[in-house]
Each structure stands twice: as structure tokens, then as C-alpha cells.
Amino acid sequence: MTALLDRRPTTVKGPVPVRRTRRIPKHWLYLAPALILLITFTYVPVGNMVWYSFHKWDGLDPVMDPVGWDNYVRVFTDERYWHVFLISLYYFVASFAQIAIALYFAVVLSFSTRFRNLFKGILFFPYLLNGVAVGFVFLYLFQPGGTLDSVLSAVGLGDQARLWLGDPDIANISLAGTSVWRFTGLSFVLFLGAIQSIPNEIYEAADLDGANRWHQFRYIIAPGIRRIISLSFILAISGSLAVFEIPFIMTGGANGTRTFVIQAYETAFQFRQIGLASAMAVVLLLIVLLITWIQRRLIPDDEVSLS
Asked: Where is the ABC transmembrane type-1 domain (predicted)?
């Protein structure tokens, strides 16, 4: 009996299993705030926009009536909605002038030039201004008897004064010129940063080989900034299709200056057709994505070698 009472449980010696808890990778903790903001303010609104585009809704009624593809059919069959796409051609052509001007000054100011920091600030300053402020400034510039007409009269060209915003034949040209003035600074900074990232040793080797500025641009700068040039074309296409601020502030879409975005805005907030306006926005998004895809297929984003 005593032997039975003296028996004690034996302990087994060995490694004690450790219970591991799964930890969230640290990189997700850093990405979480940006992902939350991106999903909340980009992807969720886009999803809602697609959902609205299949309904008839005035934005206030708690009930939305499903209409299927009727809104999209109306966008493509009603001349009022697709004809305004032609207005974007003015801004699209102007964007090429914007890219050419920005590229020219970026190349010139990337070399040793007097007062180049001053010129850099002058070129980039318009992009820092608010779009509404730019619209009002150029509204006074183009108004009858305004600054532009006064300058033309001062140099003896008063007979060339026009209704810069009232004549449908030149109103869009005036607005496109305003857009060029405002956004040239953005393209300039992109080009200048790309040019300055090219190693100086390449320029020095080109100088030793007797290359002039044109040869350096053709064989060094242009291949080296090909990606930025491609990006500029993508921004030009998407920007020309999504023009809103300048024509809305300066003309309100009158005199044949109504763009697709202004048409969508009026459809949504003046005529209370949220479903139709959402369909217009979806169509615009798909067009931009399609053009971007075609551009990337035609101009592949390959590695650029300067060696």
C-alpha cells in the first residue's frame, strides 16, 4: 500500500511546444492607411458610379429604377452627348504644343544657362495657381475691351480684336490656349527631372566625340526620357477628354465650348439624371483606359539603354 502511495507521476523531459501566433506583416501596416483611403475614395465611388449607371435616379429618391443598358444606349445614340467629344480635339491638339514647349525649355534649361532658376520658377508658377483663379484671370484677359484687346490696340493691331470667348470659331482656341499656359509647367518639371537624371558622364563623352546640342538631344536626351514622353502623351489624352475647370469658369459651356465633363455635370446636377451622368462617366473612363492600353501596346515601356 505504501508503495502505491509513493508512486508519483514522472515528468517527461523534452522541448516544450511553443504556441505561435500569426503576425500581420509589417509592410501591410504601412500600406493600410493608403489602401483604406484609396479604396474608400476611389474604388468604392467608382463601384457606386457603375451601379448608378444601370438605374434611373434623380439623386434624392430613395428608390432607384433599374433600366439596364438604356443609359449607355442613350449616350451613344443621342447627338447631344457624343458630339461634345469633338470639343476635346481642340485641347488634344493644344496638348502637343504644350509638350513641345515644355520639352524645349526643359532641354535648354538643363544646360548651363544664365538665370535658369528664375526661368524654371516662371514656367512652373502657373501650375501652382488654382484653376478657378486662372479662369477668372483669363476671363478678364479675353473679355471685349479687356487686356488682350488693349495690348493689340497699343501695338497697332486693334483691328484684330475679336470676341475671343463669344465667337464659336475661336472660343475653343482661346480656352485651349489658356489650358496650355496653365499645364505647361507640369510637363516642364517632368521633362526636366528626367533629363537631370541622365549621368553627366554621358554628356562629357559626347562632348569629347564632338557632339553638338542637337546630337545630344537626339541620341542621349530623347531615348533617356522616352518613358516620360510616353507618360506625357497619356496625360495629354486623358486631360483633353476630362477638361472641366477652365471652360466651365470662363464660358459655362456656352458658344460651343461645352465639353463632355460639363455635359455630364449639367446632366447630373441640373437635370437630376444621376444614372445617365454616371453612364457618361463610365464611358469616359473606359475610353481613357482603352487609349492608354493602345498607347502602351504601340510604345512598349521597355528598358532604355544609353550605352
From this structure: 84-295
Identify the H or E element spanning 65.
strand 65-66
The CATH number linked to 123 is: 1.10.3720.10
pLDDT tens digit sequence for 140-158: 899 888 888 888 888 888 8
Any domain includes 105 = yes
Q: Give the structural domain span for 265.
A: 71-298
Cα 275 to Cα 70: distance, rounded to the nearest angstrom = 10
Contact 59, 277 (CB under 8 A): no
CA–CA distance, 272 with 277 (Å, rounded to integer): 9
Q: Is 55 helix (H, G, I), strand (E, B) or coil?
A: strand
Provide the total of helices (H) and of strands (E) in the chain, helices listed first: 17, 2
Q: Name every residue whose Cβ is closer than 8 Å to that of residue 187 and which is 6 or more positions away in sequence.
A: 98, 99, 102, 103, 232, 235
Helix (H, G, I), strand (E, B) or coil at 56: strand
CA dihedral of residues 175, 176, 182, 184 (deg, nearest 10): -170
**Mean pLDDT of the residues in the chain:** 85
pTM of the complete model:
0.81
